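note to self — DONT lose this again. spent like an hour looking for the file last time. sequence + predicted structure for the chain T wanted, 150 res
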Amino acid sequence: MREKLASALKEAMKAKEAARLSTLRLINAAIKDREIALRGAGDGATVGDAEILAILGKMVKQRQESARAYEEGGRLELAEKELAEVAVIEEFLPRQLSPEEVEAAITAAIEKLGANSIRDMGRVMAELKAAHTGQMDFGAVGPMVKARLG
C-alpha cells in the first residue's frame, strides 16, 4: 500500500497535477500522524495496510460530510474540491461492496459465528471488519446487523 501511494505521489509530481498531489500529501500526512500517535503510545512505529485502509475510509467520510455541508451552504466550488479529493482517495481503497454483497457478508458472518442474539453483535462486527475493511461503511452496517440479531 505504501509503495502504491509513493509511486502515485511521484507520478503526480511529474505530471504537475497540483490537486492530486495535494490530496496524496494529505494521505501521507494522516498516515505519519497515526504513526507518531502509535509511537507515543509505545506501540509499533509503523502502520499496516489494514490501518491505512481505515485512515483512508475515515478521510473519505470526512470529505463527503464537508462536501454536503458546503453544498447546503451554497459553496459549490468548495464542495467540488472535496469530492475531487474523495475520488483520489478512493483509488487506493478496495472496491465497495454492493448492498446485496453486504447482506451476503452479514449473513455469512452470522452463520459462521452461530450468532443468534444481540449479545453476539460485537463478534459479528469484528468478523466483518476483519474480512471487509475498507469495503463497506460500518456505520451503516451496524444497524443492519442489529436488526438481524435483535
